[in-house]
């Protein structure tokens, strides 16, 4: 993967040059927006072009640094002007690896004739693929630039290893999409979120990301050959066909594996609205499906849907102790044992096809499983638990359970008569309030109760190539939400984002959205304040509505004017499958 990652860094380097306003750094104030070109190019997401200004003779250290920061924002993309602000040695080797965004570049903390020091407030970092790495520490947020004199002009000798750009125009020009890899067992796709520039190089950026491969191959893998590279951009014809040419040697794959590899590309490229199909050549060899077709529609690979192939879109809930399903205004008892007998359940989870259900008893000690429809009996799957959270189903029919014991949370899975405990450092043994498992079975998200606030943590679930769960990564904390304190509930918003309900006061709460990588979701997420919300009902399918559950009913969080859709009396729980 090393050579592929180096290639990706080179490919993404120009993509990381964003625009939206030149930076002006006065001696006695913060960096502010300055002159922007008037020309708007539709191929660059409809944003204005920015012409980088070359250095002028006799500039002071502060002016050289200001010009360098401005030049890193050239749009369309180019680095040659920014390199003019560097010493000859620095310019020859400068190859920014990632991207740092900041809210404000605060005034120079110290300035001399050969040194300028700035603090980047609200700084975050993306790696070369565009994957979010988190907030910079206080130390990392200090930008210290040294200068030397060459041919009578001051030039920077130690440029940062990342491009440094304002967050405002980053948000205007980048969007969060996903690279689609495969679960180790190959039976489902796994989305990995990345930020990419919305320009005419989008297809090239996405393909380059796939070539680089996943970060954690125990949670996701790629069937693209490890040693291939994308040396040219990906052209898109007028009929929407992307032509992908990879150099290197094609790997011998079975017909199934070949279709899985093409599905990775199909799901990744379908995010570009200009692409309807693609062709793939590796080392000059055209890759085809088993039927000989070499023009692959981006709708290919439906069975590998990470949100569940043909998953039910209905809501499920409990009303007067009976399992009900349908739409918010019409939830009726299911035609099966759970719709006929009140088992005294407090929560329920239904598998992705809407075929089997698992109910947790009121005291949290017992788990009942059985069919949603039909005449089969309900089974007591577990009866010695301490305090079960609401379970979760994945695409492979595994039922995930989290028991809040006296020794902390214990995670396990069940499938029929089989099952096993899974140790998740950072979640196992902690005081966990609730949890989610992604439908692709590769992520677990937990709300951990701490002394003064709750903390969301995410871990990757590891599988072998037969699809068996073999362990998990250490859970890491996601960035704190704007509304600190206690978390009332969490739910999937998309396959890579989570809706979070925070308590603001006894009578009000705030719903926000955060990425599974900790990245803020910006305008694409949900941010709203509402009263009386006690839970969330969400789905990773973007087209399905995320609801806030209130005493008056379900509130659709996707619309500006929100009136609750009244629920039938006696409803005590509601949610989607999974």
Automatic annotation (TrEMBL):
InterPro entries: GerMN, LpqB_C, LpqB_N. It comes from Nocardioides cremeus. Residues 203-291 form the GerMN domain. It comes from the Bacteria. This is LpqB family beta-propeller domain-containing protein. Residues 1-19 form the signal peptide. Keywords: Signal.
